[in-house]
Design a protein that fits this description.
With about 270 residues, this protein is of the alpha/beta class. α4 links the parallel β4 and β5. The protein starts with 6 loop residues before the first strand and ends in a 10-residue tail after the last helix. The relative contact order is 0.10. The N terminus is likely disordered.
């Protein structure tokens, strides 16, 4: 570990755990900033660039999962990426997956073992890690309508090369099935059916990617992740962005049809 990789942020609400973890980190030659809540962690990241964050998962008001999502959103806007290692006493099936899904990179169990902590630090505090992984910040950004605002929501020229004379039928089928799928997705969100929602989000992601609707595909990915976390607030926000993005896709296709006078048949009405 080099001098530029010395400062880490410890997010832990238990005073005893704070002291023990700080002692271990300092013994390993690190400078430690300590905060006792998820909200304070976000504030610290806004002011300081850390080499690594050790994030307690279970905290009152804002837990480590919510804090991590907020930090990833902040970093996606400023183009940075900080390794986040969960510090957790959780031992349930799926907990590791939940940590990774919200944007954490790894986890370590409580009580913290000194040798295991040293292994994690040596792995994540590599000199070039942040430079190599800045793109990961964008992956974990929270969904926004602007994700779907590419210059053209679909690259028709590329599709024409791939689908040739079948393009019109492909697009008509895509629009028709997506309209039905969005109705079913909305109902799954209202009914809190996470497994059903994850399946449909995956289907939407795949079909959107197949026709080059990259904005829709990205939003499908975010929705699939929200379903896996049973994060219904994010699911509702993503669905709102999806409906807006899909409306733009349909508008774009109709505009292309009017300009070229080609019979791209789209079901339904505007």
């Amino acid at each position: 570990m080099t001098d530029e990789n010395k400062r880490v942020l410890l997010v832990e609400d238990n005073v005893v755990n704070q002291k023990l973890a700080t002692m271990l980190l300092q013994q390993l030659g690190l400078t430690v900033d300590v905060v006792d809540s998820g909200q304070k962690a976000i504030q610290s990241v806004q002011k300081e660039l850390y080499a690594m964050i050790l994030m307690d998962c279970q905290m009152p008001e804002m837990d480590g999962f919510e804090a991590t999502k907020a930090i990833r959103k902040l970093e996606s806007l400023r183009g940075t990426y900080t390794p986040i290692v969960a510090v957790t006493a959780l031992a349930m099936v799926g907990d590791k997956e939940r940590c990774i899904a919200v944007g954490m990179d790894d986890y370590i169990s409580k009580p913290i073992d000194r040798q295991m902590l040293k292994i994690k630090l040596n792995h994540w505090l590599q000199k070039d890690f942040v430079l190599k992984n800045q793109e990961l910040a964008r992956k974990y950004a929270q969904p926004e309508t602007t994700l779907a605002l590419e210059e053209d929501p679909i690259d028709l020229e590329e599709l024409k090369d791939f689908y040739a004379d079948d393009l019109q039928d492909v697009l008509a089928t895509f629009v028709e099935t997506t309209e039905k799928l969005l109705v079913e997705i909305n109902q799954a969100i209202l009914d809190h059916k996470d497994a059903q929602l994850a399946h449909m989000a995956h289907e939407l992601k795949g079909s959107s990617a197949s026709v080059g609707a990259k904005g829709l595909a990205k939003l499908g990915l975010y929705l699939e992740r929200a379903a896996g976390l049973r994060d219904w607030h994010d699911a509702k926000d993503t669905f709102a962005a999806l409906t807006s993005a899909f409306a733009r896709v349909k508008y774009f296709l109709r505009q292309q049809h009017s300009a070229s006078h080609e019979a791209v048949i789209l079901p339904g009405r505007e």
